[in-house]
Amino acid sequence: MIKRLLGKLDRSSKKPVDLERTDNVPRHVAIIMDGNGRWAKKRGLPRIAGHHSGMKAVKRVTLAAKAAGVEYLTLYAFSTENWKRPKEEVDYLMKLPMEFLELELADLIRNNVQVRMMGYTNELPKQTLNALEDAVRKTASNTGLILNFALNYGSRREMMEAVKQIADDVQAGKLDCNQIDEQLMSTRLLSGDLPDPDLLIRTSGEIRLSNFMLWQLAYSEMWFTEVYWPEFSEEHFHEALMEYKRRARRYGGL
Ligand code: IPE
Ligand code: IPE
Ligand code: MG
To answer: Do you know which Pfam families this protein is assigned to (predicted)?
Structure first.
């Protein structure tokens, strides 16, 4: 009996987990890519240099996620609150998707990646939106990793808009109050048919959600690192996946 118990303890101990195993890979990983500005400051560079360098991390992590067998990768790129930043910084952040796609779209297509966006994207500058829509269109039939960019995304607004939509449907007689359940609410969010994230990663040492996927992260595992986003490597990503494998998700049960 005691031996059996000890055996159990041993299995759950923190020994390294083989990444080659395909079991227990999170289906959906969401990342709050934070620390670009501080990374730049540490090097005496302007903040936008940090954002530029962060773009390379996006590519690295996309390929690492694909290789690990992750199905969905959601990246928080711009929040509904980020408009508060100085105009020059916002302008640069709005140019970044164009720059990124110009550089990387062909390779994303080669890698069978499907690009999606999640957020109030109609409020983005026309050129930014065009570039993103072009990427979404050109990758729509790809069947590999879904790379979902959260752009002008804010979770409170998302939930509020979903509630308004549902209320409208009830008022119009299209929906009965009794039909409102968690499933319906989920599908009315910007994340639509995406499954909830299994794993949330936030870089740069901040331990908060900053209005990111508040509904969808209800039972997600969270992993925080001090590393700034531009220096986030495949190894860091694997570290997070290995930690995920060791976690026991109970969803309130035993
Ligand atoms: C994350 O890095 C990128 C965006 C929020 C667009 P930050 O720009 O927030 O970098 P820090 O947190 O100021 O270092
Ligand atoms: C969250 O980072 C938003 C993105 C990564 C896009 P912020 O840097 O905006 O978050 P706060 O302001 O530190 O909470
Ligand atoms: Mg930040």
So the answer is: Prenyltransf
Condensed to tens digits (0 to 9), the pLDDT of residues 2-43 reads: 445 444 444 444 444 455 445 899 999 999 999 999 999 999
Its pTM stands at 0.92
Q: Considering every ligand atom, which ligand is closest to the CA of 76? A: 2
Beta pairing, strands 221-224 & 199-202? parallel
CATH number of 55's domain: 3.40.1180.10
Q: Which residue, judged by its Cα, is nearest atom 10 of ligand 2?
A: 210
Number of domains the chain contains: 1
- Give the C-alpha separation, 232 to 60, whole Å: 9
Selecting among 10, 23, 34, 142, the annotated active-site residue is: 34
36 marked as part of a ligand binding site: yes
Domain that holds residue 63: 24-156+197-246
253: in domain? no
112 Cβ neighbours under 8 A, 6+ residues apart: 142, 143, 144, 145
Q: Is 93's C-beta closer than 6 angstroms to any atom of ligand 2? A: no
